[in-house]
Amino acid sequence: MKICGIDPSMKSSGQVVMTLDDDTLDVVDIQFYGYTHTKCYAIDEGNVHITYLGSYESCLTRCIPDRQEQTFGIIKSHLDGVSFVGMEDYATSKAKKESGSILQIAEFCGGIRYMMYTMGIGIINFGIGQIKRFATGNGDAGKPDMCLSFLHEYPQLYPSDIFAKLKEFESPHNDLCDAFWMCEILRSCMKLEKFGPQSLDETKYAFLTTTVTKGALSLAESPLMKKGVPYEPVRKKKKSKKKKEKNND
User: Fold this and answer.
1) How far is CA 17 from CA 4, 34, 176, 201, 218, in A?
2) Dihedral, CA atoms, 5, 7, 8, 14, nearest 10 degrees?
3) Residue 65, preceding bond cis, omega within 30 degrees?
4) Using an 8 Å Cβ cutoff, are 33 and 212 in contact?
5) How far is the C-alpha of 84 from the C-alpha of 101, rounded, in Å?
6) Residue-by-residue DSSP string for 133-183
7) What is the pLDDT of residues 48-100, one digit of tens each?
8) CB neighbour list of residue 242: distance below 8 Å, 6 or more residues apart
9) What is the value of pTM for the model shown?
10) Backbone angles phi, psi at 184, to 5 degrees
């Protein structure tokens, strides 16, 4: 089975594809994909594959649909055989509203989700703060923390020699690290569902199943979007459950 984690960005998306053992859900293979406007970071070595998009100045002379077609095509080319994708939810809080970038982020991320949906791939969106908590224990963690946590917790999966050729903690390095965590969260949710809490260490289990914000979903509760599968938000389920309990009283 293959699963994928995506940190979406028109300038430099990070994409990680894990091949899992069907029985144990252990990682059999891991591939890192991305793209960049910096030519010296366009690396295709080992299991790290970064495509050069051309200079950022030249990209700005092209219309948004043309740029999307290029980046969507790159992302799609690495989704063969992928069953599920974990994605960062909309990161609109840091967008400059006056520049229109908030609309571009929504349009870009929505286009990726629709593309995967039509391919029959299951999509799960994870909250940004929750991803950071799972990776580092801190919901306000910065990019360096996300990268270092990947290196320290999973040194056997971290391609140190190749990542050393990228600018530390900046795109595309940090994008690939963020994508890894989304893929690992997805894998952990699958392990929890298949094998139960005992399959995870206590800390990761806690990060998957608890929240710090009232009304937020836990990572393990994040609903799946998949073509042909009924969609029912978790909040709706909780409300229905409370209503049922009230009626029984």
Assistant:
1) 4, 11, 11, 23, 23
2) -90
3) no
4) no
5) 28
6) HHHHS-TT--HHHHHHHHHHH-TTT--HHHHTTSPTTSTTHHHHHHHHHHH
7) 999 999 999 999 899 989 999 999 999 999 999 999 999 988 765 555 554 45
8) none
9) 0.90
10) -70, -35
